[in-house]
Amino acid sequence: MIKRLKKKWGINSNLQLAIIFIVFAITGSASAKLALPLLEFLGVQSSDFIDLPMGMALYTLLRILIIFPIYQILLIAVATIFFQFRFFWEFEKKILSRMGLKFLFDKKNKS
Q1: Global pTM?
Q2: Structurally, how many domains does the chain consist of?
Q3: Smallest Cα–Cα separation from 79: which of 20, 7, 32?
Q4: Which of 3, 6, 9, 33 has the fewest Cβ atoms within 10 Å of its own Cβ atom?
Q5: Which residue range is the domain that position 54 belongs to?
Q6: Who contacts 65 (Cβ-Cβ below 8 Å, separation ≥6)?
Q7: What distance in Å separates the CA atoms of residue 56 and residue 62, rounded to the nearest whole number?
């Protein structure tokens, strides 16, 4: 499995693979941790959703939607700290393109 990942991502060293895993771990944990204070800053509390039908599910969905942009920004920031900007920038472009956001990176649309 490790060999397959290294080949897929174009990585030669186990050290770089370990660093990539560390970047993913730090970014995932940090973005999940930062979502709650950001929601509180915006004035959104989980208690606001208690009386709504499926209120906690809606709150959880909102929290996930908040986590997504935080994750994208943190991924590039943490990757830069670990000298992996190029790998993660290409990774970001691929993921966002698959989500239908290719226009963000399309050079044809830029003037």
Answers
A1: 0.78
A2: 1
A3: 20
A4: 3
A5: 2-106
A6: none
A7: 10
